[in-house]
Amino acid sequence: MVIGAAARVAIGGCRKLVSSHTSLLLVSSQCRQMSMDAQSVSEKLRSSGLLRTQGLIGGKWLDSYDNKTIKVNNPATGEIIADVACMGTKETNDAIASSYEAFTSWSRLTAGERSKVLRRWYDLLIAHKEELGQLITLEQGKPLKEAIGEVAYGASFIEYYAEEAKRVYGDIIPPNLSDRRLLVLKQPVGVVGAITPWNFPLAMITRKVGPALASGCTVVVKPSELTPLTALAAAELALQAGVPPGALNVVMGNAPEIGDALLTSPQVRKITFTGSTAVGKKLMAAAAPTVKKVSLELGGNAPSIVFDDADLDVAVKGTLAAKFRNSGQTCVCANRVLVQDGIYDKFAEAFSEAVQKLEVGDGFRDGTTQGPLINDAAVQKVETFVQDAVSKGAKIIIGGKRHSLGMTFYEPTVIRDVSDNMIMSKEEIFGPVAPLIRFKTEEDAIRIANDTIAGLAAYIFTNSVQRSWRVFEALEYGLVGVNEGLISTEVAPFGGVKQSGLGREGSKYGMDEYLEIKYVCLGDMNRH
Ligand code: ADP
């Protein structure tokens, strides 16, 4: 956590800034010292047409119909980056109508034609990797290197589904009667409503839109109001790649209004959502009257289980990656670190040493590994969880408070002696706090790990092949990392069980979420 005095002053100074140039507000010279060269970022984005503040409806960039806007902040400095259109029911209905119309022609293209468009989009996303990464850091806060990594990861879904578009095979089934022939066709679901969160402003969109467009669906995307700029830039590149008007729309603003419009429309045949469990449940209920297909990727409560027979270095490195990526703000972040008795003290020491080396700061500063949390509410939640744990007997090894940088920076934290009566054992922390929980036997570990309504990701660290099989088979989770803390990839299915969600994203399985199966029975086939 090495932050120089100059950087601290600069971050404090940013709050006062505001030299407006179009809708992008620039930072002061003080701020530029800390390498957050917002002016050059904005100029580059503007010249490549990537700084968009309007919604995209039917291939046109539009203001909200009542000209309302919402402000997008840089969480590292609090400064306003842009004013974007604040849309609602009317704009969403128009976006749905344009998507519905576009579906007819887009779904009738050959898979090869759709594949070419997606491939061009992928190439453009990669060609603009740096600018998109800068945009992600600007509006979401994660370190630039991690943000550029997100662009590569996000783009990989477009590349993968450009390839997979050509492999949507049906079936011919041996018939039950000799004069029949039985076929299975896979066809696109129709118009898709995609609602996405702020923690991966690009990747959460591409892993929905990639398979949707590849299969022939058209989409209305609602990005998070906290991070709409990356979504709009990606949509601009989709237009440049040849995605036709209406096949991809982006609306943002009044989330409940946009959500209601998508959910009540009989023309929208599928809702795909990544976000909180509470909102996911509401959307699922609201999808019932029109019986939409629903995919939900909701909250997790990931255990990282370190057994006595683990390689200490592998366990430390893996748990560190699983816990602290994006400052702990991912649904697959380790939320509980379960450590076996025999290795507990050694692990606590080695892990805390590793956490101590994490560097907190502005995502544009070289060397930063931990950016700010998304907003003050997120920090307050973390503070409440930590206070609750300490009041019930947990002990802070390092961290445990807001960072001296101010704003929404929080110190990377390790807490020991955490038990199952503390809030952080039960609910998603979504911040840079690692609670260490002690266990005795393998059975205890499995019981504690499964004692939650969530079931997204789990991690285990052991050198025993037999133990790893026993444990990953017993874990009630959709994803399990064995001796590995970073497991997400476009080629593997991502998704949860229990209340962590429905459906899978990525891989060949992710395509099925956007396809309907049609069975065709050809009768009277013995006639000559
Ligand atoms: P998070 O806590 O990660 O922000 P949310 O579930 O609140 O998770 O938000 C995820 C996405 O869901 C965001 O795009 C947000 O605007 C959207 N959202 C929140 N409430 C609603 C709602 N009532 N209807 C539709 N979308 C919503």
UniProtKB/TrEMBL annotation:
GO cellular-component term (any): mitochondrial matrix
Domain Aldehyde dehydrogenase: 61-520
Subcellular location: Mitochondrion matrix
Pfam families: Aldedh
PROSITE patterns: ALDEHYDE_DEHYDR_CYS, ALDEHYDE_DEHYDR_GLU
Pathway: Amino-acid degradation; 4-aminobutanoate degradation
Single GO term (MF): succinate-semialdehyde dehydrogenase (NAD+) activity
Active site: E297
Catalytic activity: succinate semialdehyde + NAD(+) + H2O = succinate + NADH + 2 H(+)
One of the protein's GO biological processes: gamma-aminobutyric acid catabolic process
Cited InterPro entries: Ald_DH/histidinol_DH (IPR016161), Ald_DH_C (IPR016163), Ald_DH_CS_CYS (IPR016160), Ald_DH_CS_GLU (IPR029510), Ald_DH_N (IPR016162), Aldehyde_DH_dom (IPR015590), Aldehyde_DH_Superfamily (IPR050740), Succ_semiAld_DH (IPR010102)
Highest taxon in the source lineage: Eukaryota
EC code(s) of this entry: 1.2.1.24
This protein's UniProt keywords: Mitochondrion, NAD, Oxidoreductase
Principal location class: mitochondrion
The protein's enzyme class: oxidoreductase
Quaternary data: Homotetramer.
Family: Belongs to the aldehyde dehydrogenase family.
Name of the featured protein: Succinate-semialdehyde dehydrogenase
